[in-house]
Amino acid sequence: xxxxxxxxxxxxxxxxxxxxxxxxxxxxxxxxxxxxxxxxxxxxxxxxxxxxxxxxxxxxxxxxxxxxxxxxxxxxxxxxxxxxxxxxxxxxxxxxxxxxxxxxxxxxxxxxxxxxxxxxxxx
Length: 123
Ligand code: HEM
Known about the structure:
binds protoporphyrin IX containing FE; Cyt_B5-like_heme/steroid_sf
């Protein structure tokens, strides 16, 4: 499923459900989302006041550092996030080493145990 967040004037909007209904088309929203801050693109279109008031229905949070600088009324309460991009929602990819290291340690431990129990002199 497509997931689309926009950052406009320091506010984060989840417009995923609005993509298909946006009069300007979903492509511009996806593109604006991918390019980081969508404020400029949003302003350049010269959206109507109807469009501006629609925005508050999609407001999900504020970009950290922008808090307290005004904004739309009736914002859904208090979530703050560092960016509006999707990267923040995904955990960092774990490397191959994360998997192989515990296996290596177990193998060495087993080797040592095997050596000590089978090959050392039992005087
Ligand atoms: C939450 C964010 C947004 C909302 C609620 C929204 C809403 C709307 C609405 C209601 C219209 C119809 C015209 C009007 O009333 O002004 C419109 C048109 C349009 N919007 Fe947005 N928009 C949003 C974000 C954006 C962004 C980021 C872009 C980036 C380029 C964009 C590009 C356009 C374009 C190109 C049109 C077409 C205008 C035309 O057909 O002449 N919109 N939008």
